[in-house]
Amino acid sequence: MSNRETLKAELKKLSAKALEAKMDLHDLSEELPINWTSIMAVAQKAHDAFAELERKSHDLKSLENT
Asked: What crossing angle do the helices spanning 3-31 and 39-64 adopt, rounded to 10°?
């Protein structure tokens, strides 16, 4: 598998992971004030997932521009 195909496969997985983290954050917000103590952990998980997705997207764009 080429680097481009590998990155696209990783992006697909990361996108699903980011979507799941987004939904976890959304679900938590609807349940507040229940589990309010987990706000930081759930938000950090969502932040990390989207940051990783953005990094890999930039990697793919860089690879396609070379």
From this structure: 160
